[in-house]
Fold this sequence. Notes:
By secondary structure, the protein is α+β, with helices and mostly antiparallel strands. The protein contains 12 helices and 22 strands.
Amino acid sequence: MNLKMKAMQGMVLAGCMVVLGIIAESANTTVASAAVEQREVTTETDYTTGGTAGVVRSLNELEAQALEGLQLASIAQLQVAVVTASEDEIEAIADIPELTAEELAWQNLAMADVKEQMNVRAEASAEAEIVGRLRKGDVAEVIEKGEEWTHIRSGNVDGYVKNEYCVYGVEALAYAKANVDTRVTITGNGVRVRSEASSDSSVVAAVSKGAVLIAETEAESVDGWVAVKYTGKTRYVSADFAELKLATGSAITIEEEQEIARKKAEEEAKRKAAQVTEVTVVQKEAFDATTDEILFLAALIQCEAGSECYEGKVAVGAVVMNRVRSSRYPNSITGVITSPGQFTPYGSGKVDSVMANGPKDSCIQAAQEAINGLDNTGGAVSFRTKRTGHAGLVIGNHVFF
């Protein structure tokens, strides 16, 4: 990409020099004849730079505009010294495809090519502080792209991401279309949703202005109509009353992530409170934990119960918090987890590895619930895999005691 940019900049500069040459020579020329010799321009360059469209004009057009601007009656002949690019630069420019307006709009954007999310750091270093997450489906503005790290801005997050986990420009647009829903916003009142792409087809429903539907991108394209998903089936609305936009998101800060997890935990608690289960859930006093402690506990939960049911994840977190509240163990989350010989994933380095990449949302949510005081283990301070046959409360594949 850098070679193409340099080549294009070189050609832009060359074009400017040509125009300046024409204007300078034309200003000193006064000829009675009104004839202008038409000369063929052998090379025409079409280029596109990050977000700036280059306009291609033939040498004849440049001459004509220069003459008209200076209001000269005529010129017998123009001698223009054309500044040319190198062969490598010309070859690089020739390989640049013509971009659509949509592709041009994405030239300075990036997306994370990940299963769930990636870390955004304060500096271009794997050791730098994590300031946010760029999740699958989030789009970011590229501030500056380096060899290994890219400075991005998305939502309230401003930081650095590793290049190897991102896609850029046209590739990012293609990735978005393949992995993100397309929203269809209705722009008129009483817009009919039809069974087929025809004004003669039956009306399934009428939707009001501002309603949002999801486009059915797998359906065959029909001029004048937009295929949408409606009640589980493919339906159609008039393209005259539909505005399409990719449903991309923005990165979230660590604080926003915690707030999302907190709200999910509250909703989950309300849902569980309305259910009758065999496990007695106790709400204890919440613990005042730091951001690092929440993520540390979430990383342990992911290592110990990442493939377990959600209740199993909460139970692992509850065991840690029950120890924190007990006088027999350290009175901090970090102290409990790092105690020698207590949690194998920490001793093996797996917890630190998960911390580096960022725990899963479900594990962060479970950690937040446990820190908020939820205990579904009956006060257990230990757990084993249930295949050990140890007596206790079985949740998922673990027994808690």
